[in-house]
Amino acid sequence: MVINGRDPSALATTEGDLRARGIDVVSVAGSMEDDATPSRLVEAAREHFGRIDHLVNTIGGPHFAGSFEVMDKAGLVDTVALNTWPTLALIQAALSGGLAEGGGSVVNISSGAPRKTTPSMVAYAAAKAALNALTRTMAADLAARGVRVNAVSPGLTRTTGTRSHWEADGGRAAGAQLLLGRLTEAEDIAAAAVFLLSGDARQITGVVLDVDGGNHLGAGGWSPLAGAGGVTAPGPTAP
Prior knowledge:
The protein is an alpha/beta fold.
């Protein structure tokens, strides 16, 4: 396994945890917004493991969060670019590095935001809608080469990045808003990604799989940010 992150310290901790579980892992520090990072990841995979079998893209976040009335061109364009280009660039690099040599599978981490109309998340929703369109189109283009491309669409998920939405009560209030009555865990997203990468999903390509406790079934979908005022987000985060 090759893993990537912007924080070398956090990356080293994750690498240590995976090694303790018996997983052969190599870490490559760097931002996916750096054009050199995709090729560095592919080179690491080829050097240490000899091939590339699977790819999971988790980069994303809102460069801008706020109403469309106060959004400028850079806020929209930068948010769309963050949620699409690093993913596309890494898939291109992986294909050049042999992803399709024996078939392969890709999972992109999207969001349920495109089906919501949360005013403060309009740029992010547009960006993830673009990622979904890319996912379906790449799936169609790569099917003849044996490569499957799918996406996982999380709802609000208990992570360090969403701590402010669940920390006060352990996620009980947020979970109560969902049909299944519990807050989505990071492990739920990981399990869905592993399934889509696996041979059990060999007949599945071009889908966006909702993992959100049934939130997508509601009219408009519940969002913890509904009604939030216009603010500028601090920077890219993994969903």
